[in-house]
Design goal:
Order of helices and strands: HEHHEHEHEHEHEHEHEHHEHH
Number of helices: 13
CATH superfamily: Metal-dependent hydrolases
CATH topology: TIM Barrel
Helix content: 25-40%
CATH architecture: Alpha-Beta Barrel
Structural class: alpha/beta
Strand content: 5-15%
Number of strands: 9
Length: 352
């Protein structure tokens, strides 16, 4: 079914203007974790799923049909690393996960297409498919790999550090207090240079602030760094969020900041309890980094609890509606929804 012929969902809390804006735009989510429930219990992302046991909490936020409700045109599908395996085992499991996502793409019958460049993204979109950008959360997944093996996996981005410390550096989680060196290790700095060489996005989500600045010190000044899923300290001070200096540093290098949908990182005392908590963080990021540096990175299916009204893949138009409610222009909204990331991607890979 073409986007033009899709029915407008009724009584969902958004106007026809918001829905049409989704249809007309590049709507790209920089971080989804739907492969986690697929790996754990065989959750099928190709069929429409009902809310699971815990409702909007933790998992069950996304599947392809619900993303199609919102006219999502692309997403970074993350392969999350199990840090408690050996380096060799992590690499073997990563390869199994790569095989699994290729199987999902094949079984989608053309509704999903792999993309590792802006050109491939537009090719997928022109064919009515959603572009699937492969990514890794926890760079230690490929600790035992060589550079050529990484490139051959068609990975678009790698999050250097996840929720645990690794051979590359320190996580922003509170357990960093027990780690004397909170920056990148020499191996981590070499890894950043390797990703730059391979034109793979260096994702600075989850990293300790010291490691953040270490990474930028060794990162090529000609390539854009990104943070795919984060809140901002200017709206809610939290160990998981970026401060204003970090936001500006990413923007100054042509990168983008994807705002997360996880309420526990966004919600402030006395603040909004609905989708406007996400809008607060988007707005602060715009005020600091500019409207060309902000994007969406929901972290759906990544053990998060999003606001109730934006808790599934069908609900992106509600977020657009909240932007319209603030009288933001269609141009600004389209930038946030996907155009900013596409412009950033062109800086990383002018051609493939």
């Amino acid at each position: 079914m073409s986007l033009a012929n899709k029915p407008v969902l009724k009584d969902k809390g958004y106007t026809k203007e918001a829905w049409l804006l989704c249809q007309e735009s590049d709507l790209i989510d920089l971080h989804i974790d739907t492969l986690i429930p697929n790996r754990i219990w065989g959750y099928n992302p190709l069929k429409r799923n009902k809310p699971w046991l815990f409702g909007r909490h933790f998992f069950g936020h996304l599947d392809l049909p619900r993303m199609q409700d919102s006219s999502v045109t692309g997403a970074m599908w993350s392969i999350t690393t199990n840090p408690f395996r050996s380096a060799k085992s992590r690499w073997n499991i990563f390869n199994k996960n790569i095989t699994q996502i290729h199987k999902i793409i094949e079984e989608s019958n053309g509704q999903l297409m792999l993309a590792r460049s802006v050109e491939e993204y537009h090719k997928a979109k022109s064919q009515g498919a959603q572009a699937c950008m492969l990514s890794i959360q926890g760079g230690n997944a490929i600790e035992a790999a060589c550079p050529a093996q990484i490139t051959n996996k068609l990975v678009t981005r790698i999050t250097l550090i996840h929720l645990t410390h690794s051979c590359f550096g320190t996580s922003s989680t509170p357990t960093h207090w027990f780690r004397p060196n909170k920056g990148l290790t020499p191996k981590g700095k070499d890894f950043v240079a390797q990703l730059n060489e391979e034109k793979i996005f260096v994702d600075l989500a989850h990293i300790h602030p010291k490691g953040f600045w270490d990474a930028l010190d060794v990162h090529s000044s000609h390539l854009p760094p990104i943070d795919t899923h984060t809140g901002v300290c200017g709206a809610r001070k939290h160990w998981r969020n970026l401060d204003d200096k970090q936001l500006k540093a990413i923007a100054d290098r042509g990168g983008v900041i994807g705002i997360i949908f996880a309420a526990n990182f966004l919600k402030r005392r006395g603040g909004p309890k609905d989708a406007n908590m996400i809008i607060e963080h988007i707005e602060h990021a715009i005020n600091v980094a500019g409207e060309d540096a902000v994007a969406l990175g929901s972290d759906f299916d990544g053990l998060i609890s999003p606001p109730l009204e934006v808790s599934t893949g069908s609900d992106y138009p509600i977020l657009v509606q909240r932007m319209l409610d603030k009288k933001w222009s269609h141009t600004r909204i389209k930038k946030i929804m996907g155009q900013n990331f596409l412009n950033c991607w062109k800086l990383l890979r002018p051609t493939l």
